[in-house]
C2 domain-containing protein (Arachis hypogaea), 884 residues
Amino acid sequence: MNNLKLAVEVVSAHDLAPKDGEGSSSPFVELQFNGQKFRTMTKEKDLSPVWDETFYFNITDPSMIPSLNLEAFVYHYNKTNGSKVFLGKVRLTGASFVSYSDAVLLHYPLEKKRFFSKVQGELGLKVYVTNDNSMRASNPLPDFFQNNTYHIPMQDQTQLPFPDPVLREIPIKKTQPNRHTFHNIAKSNKGEKQQPNSAAVAAAAGMPNVSFSMNEMKSAKPAAKVMNAFAGSASPVDHVVRETSPVLGGGKVVGGRVIRGNIPASTYDLVEPMEYLFVRVVKARDLPSMDVTGSLDPYVEVKIGNFKGTTNHFEKNQSPEWNQVFAFAKENLQSSILEVVVKDKDVVLDDVVGNVKFNLYDVPRRAPPDSPLAPEWYRIENKKGEKNNGEIMLAVWYGSQADEAFPDAWHSDAISPNGSSSSSHYAQIRSKVYHSPRLWYVRVKVIEAQDLVPSEKSRIPDAYVKVQIGNQILKTRPVQSRMMNPQWNQDLMLVAAEPFEEPLILTVEDRLGNNKDETIGNVIIPVGSIDKRADDRPIRSRWYPLEKSMSSARDMENGKQKEKDKDKFFSRIHVNVFLEGGYHVLDESTYYSSDLRPSTRVLWKKQIGVLELGILDANVIPMKTREGRGTSDAYCVAKYGQKWVRTRTVIGSISPKFNEQYTWEVYDPSTVLTLGVFDNGQVSSSNGNGNRDSKIGKVRIRLSTLESGRIYTHTYPLLMLHNSGVKKMGEIHLAIRFSCTSFVNMLNLYFKPHLPKMHYVKPLNIIEQDRLKQQAVIIVSARLSRAEPPLRKEVVEYLSDSDSHLWSMRRSKANFNRLKNVFSGLISVAGWLGEISTWKNSVTTLMFIAVGFYLMRHPKLRSKTPPAPVNFFRRLPALTDSML
């Protein structure tokens, strides 16, 4: 039996023509395919209606699909006489039908019915072919609406075809009162798209049913299907970006536009709203002594259901202060009682000082911009029910991820494998925002030295200068001078980061032999005292005295020169040192730069807009084994400009939900946002620093491809290149919006060069750029690794493409194929001539020889008579003279 179906999702229409005489229309869509007709509901007085209805057409003969057409007619329903007025149509041929995995939402412009018809607007459709047997019933023509009722089996959460927020709005008619109630239904899995079976199948399986009346039912778009990311080898079909329509904080996103409905406005409008129970443990006072010695080592344990979080313990302190926040996801709450227990830390068994209990039904709700909830003192109740064991200051409230306590709070999904929730463990998994330092190029021109004094005065020194900032070391070429005044005139460039902590060290050394050098003198120059320039104007050079020892040079740097040394004769070095502010210091791949501003703020361009990113959820492959099953501890890191963001780590889940939103300022549209997904290797590490974080994949998004004000919601594949080839590691679900604040400033950027002016006035060679880029990445990774929690070195290097300069066989083959495409015409001509010379096709070769003989016998065909236009221009002066 053939179960092939053509699925048509009628999503929305935009900017339809008004037809009711009052500047509006009441549109509906009628679909026709292979003799079958369906229609949507009528949207009263709406020129940009949203239907989100799905219809399924039977395909009797799959071989006839290319010859069949799908037609979608948009009509205005006239209530006065019950007629319908044509608003436009869309016609799709069967050759354009694809499978579900390749289907995307497309907005088709409406076509005219006749030449003089007035049609405007577009219709959003998603069309695909499927062979799924268990599909939701379609909505046929109007006469079917009145008496039909669908019976949808609620077997499990994965079979719900509707998004969860829509389900809450649907009135449910229970066919069996003692079966399922609505609050028992878990949230639908957005990673799969499954439709319920028919009522007959449900009855045969003995499953409970929930009935939806057609008059009460609201259409909803099925959740986007997620490809199987755990297969060993994924097909190229899995490597595509797919558009989604999630329900975010600002409303439901359809075609890049937000349909708000009854959802209130929110600052976190690019992520799904998530409710949390927040518990702030501030401090305690007048706690009793529990040990024989009369001391107390208190800590607090916050428990709700199976989730438990603990604070740090203080030794011998009866009035401790913690000021720590705990956040429990409301969807995971398994109890209606919150218990805050104060305990005494002991070697064998911890003693219970007392507890405070809260009924969750009495907990208040808070939403920004409300001020933070004021904590209160609560008496601690002991095991006997007595409230004389001191007091504890607490604040308990319901909030969302928009709460200012969310980033630093301990989360219920952050429990380590051993059940620990200590601050040292949580420091490795919480969300943070980082700022990379501002980088500068340091140009050092070593000109000459005078009066060098080598250890052996009889020999001519083979002198060179070593220039050092931190771990960066460069050397000039060695030069010999009989007068002890060597000249180099050599430029060296290094990278420095603000604040300038590392000084510039110049060391003049004498090369005595292989791997044997002798120091002649040193000078230390604070980088913060070096002159800065923003263009190519010359900077005055200076002479610096050379100190024999490094300690003396440091004293000279700090102004601690001794009185007896002020009139002492010194060797000296002549250098020109300055900070190049007119360049942009590249710390990432040139092709995927997220920031093109020069180092000096004076040359910075004006801000043109704001980039907002909502990191919703992900589906990743298991990266480790824990308790006999595969799992992952995933987190995301996004980079744009100098700002890096890191989400919290969701422990023990291959389908983590982040729902975190971040914002960047945009100064150039020709930039790229980079986001990477990693597996946290510090969760199972005892010292929190032993394992490397594993790479899962990364995504790059060019801002120049984004339309201002539009919300883009897509799932992006996470791909990694292994020895066996490209492998899909999972998917990441993102919501992105670029808002242009100044169109004039953005337009002005298109008339300016891509990089700052100094890159063209005094360009750096490719080899030097790659070397400086590597030094910049090392500096940025070292600075960010000093943060708490640290952004690890492997993460920074992966997002910055630090290995892009290395040779790659795959990249070499790709470049070779590009060259073949460029010279494909010449290669084809050469191949054709080769075939003629080898008589591969004797007819072609004979014709080529015949043409050659013919040209030899008729030399006039090869005459050098110029063509008519040339003769005309040669005669033009004579014609002009005759006219004059």
The mean pLDDT is 80. The CA atoms of residues 265 and 782 lie 41 Å apart. The two ends are 91 Å apart (CA to CA). Residues 275-412 form a domain with the Immunoglobulin-like fold (CATH 2.60.40.150).
